[in-house]
């Protein structure tokens, strides 16, 4: 690794920062209200709808990147399979008898993706890669949003609105790390983290990310998940921070391979934040890790 001179540091883009903060505040009001009412049945149904929309947008963006590379992934098939996985997590959170088993969802996805291509894919010469991208979109968005839904569906423990508290923790810890990484990387970044994938990311930013994750976890411990110990706060902060950054780098490799800057590629975008994948890449990796922690360490099912 080589150190960059101060003149080569990107600095803070104040105009873009203002747009990012403005759009984030608008979404924050909506999400915080929804999570505060998380114990209400209507809140869980609305949250399912929000995640279903997010999953469809994410599959659409992956489909656009695949098509830019000359493949022909199926947006409808990928979305239906992703929705099936998401609904599985929603229903299993309401009924322990598992009314929609995951194996049935995956079997349905296989039928839709593979047999559907026989009738609707006009370029079967690229069937292998096209269907692989379709599956990746379905699994990535289905499992990513599905585990967020699973966390939200947790019923009451000794604390009220357990699901809302956990999802609030997931969002704040992950996004606080992203925010801290942005400022630390912009102001202090010298050593490149992954030059081939994302030239702007630095080791200083990555460490700032983890510091922000842990600090946010202690704030959550103090005001939201008051049963957490200091060990929980440190462990959850580091785990979510590491998983989130891996997710961000993974999505960066996809954009790099497709030669695009933002995942939405000129389609629907979040002002100052790019596409849906640009917002969910960290959460899609962090949510399963967070669920594993509260399940195996705290015994939540």
TrEMBL record:
It is a multi-pass membrane protein. GO terms for cellular component: plasma membrane. Its EC number is 2.7.7.41. GO terms for biological process: CDP-diacylglycerol biosynthetic process. It comes from Mesoterricola sediminis. The lineage of its organism: Bacteria, Pseudomonadati, Acidobacteriota, Holophagae, Holophagales. It is found in: Cell membrane. This is Phosphatidate cytidylyltransferase. It is an enzyme of class 2 (transferase). One of its GO terms (molecular function) is phosphatidate cytidylyltransferase activity. Keywords: Cell membrane, Lipid biosynthesis, Lipid metabolism, Membrane, Nucleotidyltransferase, Phospholipid biosynthesis, Phospholipid metabolism, Transferase, Transmembrane, Transmembrane helix.
């Amino acid at each position: 690794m080589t150190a960059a001179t101060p003149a080569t540091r990107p600095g803070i883009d104040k105009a873009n920062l203002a747009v990012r903060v403005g759009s984030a505040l608008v979404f924050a009001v909506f999400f915080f209200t929804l999570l505060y009412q998380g114990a209400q049945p209507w809140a869980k149904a609305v949250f399912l709808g929000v995640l279903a929309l997010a999953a469809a947008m994410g599959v659409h963006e992956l489909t656009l990147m695949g098509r830019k590379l000359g493949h022909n992934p199926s947006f409808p098939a990928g979305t239906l399979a992703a929705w099936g996985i998401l609904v599985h997590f929603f229903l299993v959170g309401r009924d322990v008898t598992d009314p929609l088993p995951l194996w049935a969802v995956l079997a349905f996805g296989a039928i839709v993706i593979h047999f559907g291509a026989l009738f609707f894919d006009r370029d079967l010469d690229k069937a292998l890669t096209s269907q692989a991208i379709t599956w990746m979109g379905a699994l990535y968005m289905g499992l990513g949003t599905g585990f967020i839904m699973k966390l939200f569906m947790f019923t009451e423990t000794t604390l009220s609105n357990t699901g809302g508290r956990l999802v609030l923790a997931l969002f704040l810890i992950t996004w606080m790390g992203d925010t801290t990484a942005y400022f630390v990387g912009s102001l202090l970044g010298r050593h490149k983290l992954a030059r081939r994938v994302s030239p702007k990311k630095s080791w200083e930013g990555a460490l700032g990310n983890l510091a922000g994750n842990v600090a946010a976890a202690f704030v959550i411990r103090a005001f939201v998940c008051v049963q957490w110990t200091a060990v929980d706060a440190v462990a959850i902060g580091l785990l979510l921070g590491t998983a989130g950054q891996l997710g961000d780098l993974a999505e960066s490799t996809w954009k790099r391979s497709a030669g695009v800057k933002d995942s939405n590629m000129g389609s629907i975008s979040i002002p100052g934040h790019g596409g849906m994948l640009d917002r969910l890449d960290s959460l899609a990796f962090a949510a399963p890790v967070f669920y594993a922690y509260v399940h195996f360490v705290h015994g939540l099912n």
